Task: structure prediction
Amino acid sequence: MAKTKPLLEGKAGAPGASVYNNFVLLVYDYLALRFMTFFVWRCSASSVILPFFRSHVRQNHLDIGVGTGWFLQHSHLPSDASITLCDLNANCLEKTKSRLNRPDLDCIQHDILDPFPQEVGTFDSISLMHLLHCLPPPQARKGQVLAMLKSHLRPGGVLFGCTILGLNSGNQTWLSRRALQSANLKGHMGNLNDTEEGFVEVLRKNYNDVSTTIVGSTLLFTARDPIM
Result:
């Protein structure tokens, strides 16, 4: 198991990752997953995103951008499932391991905007839950992440996730636009110009089987059968 460390300096993904200190993680489930997803983004974590997660996660799973581990905790995966955690922020990795009561979990402290180390293997499922909108622009950089991950999918595997779209995409409201502008100004998000079309284009260039759905301000996507 890789040892985690607190340093984020010099990493491209640091602005979006550094906000997750211990206090933020303490209130994250209530603020981000209950209030924001339901009232602002209008895509409920409990009634929409969690069932989506459960329907695609497999027993050999790579979770990228783990947050607090809420989705994994409620995933119904068996206790002996092979789970690998990947996050730039050590606080998130430690919080998730503790929440799942799985100190043995493999952890990769890594900026997903950089190529994976050679020792990272392949998985039956890879998730990117509420991660892409936290990465810095332009959207093409996020597309490179989606393309890179295809080499880490096993045959029959699935890449899936959800992300909040930009100002002119999705079904934005006055409230969601104000929230987007504020989060981008603070550097917590980097998605003002993210579009469904941009994500679909890169996914279809790299995977034969792509599915997307917009709920409120949120894009949910799956990708299978990589084009190598």
